[in-house]
Amino acid sequence: MGSEDRCGVGVPKLTVSVGRLDGWIVASLAGEIDILTVPRLRAHLGDLVADHGGRPQLIVDLGDVTFCDALGLSALIGAHHTAARRGGTLCVVVPEGRVRRFLRLAKPTHDLKVHDTLSDAVGPV
User: Fold this and answer.
1) What is the residue extent of each domain of the chain?
2) Burial class, 89, CB count within 10 angstroms (exposed 0-12 / middle 13-18 / buried 19+)
3) Cα 1 from chain centroid?
4) Burial, 78: exposed, middle or buried (Cβ in 10 Å; 0-12, 13-18, 19+)?
5) Is the dihedral of CA 104, 107, 109, 113 positive or negative?
6) What is the CATH number of domain 4-120?
7) Which run of H or E residues covers position 70?
8) What is the pLDDT of residues 32-75, one digit of tens each?
9) Do 108 and 72 meet the contact criterion of CB atoms below 8 Å apart?
10) What is the three-class DSSP state of 3?
11) Whole-prediction pTM value?
């Protein structure tokens, strides 16, 4: 994967690595998504959706995320809606665990496409 950024106060709490896979932009996140890291996450996702130059095809890989709060979910939903307005797609990859359970519990409040693996995500939408 290509570019990388770390955000948070003091010790980096969230790392974002960006690359490409089968025509998709893949943002791989590691660490915690919370009130301290959401502003940079929103900026990253906004840039990725805007810089795509057409119909954004973005996968957000949460496989190495250890914590995600409601603000993090809001950032993902906002980027998803922005991509959809541009005729694109944003989907999320997250394996079973605490973050997946959180997304499942919050399902009535969002329409994110959630996949188990990157392979599942790059398949037919």
Assistant:
1) 4-120
2) middle
3) 15
4) middle
5) positive
6) 3.30.750.24
7) helix 70-85
8) 999 999 999 999 999 999 876 688 899 999 999 999 999 999 99
9) no
10) coil
11) 0.86
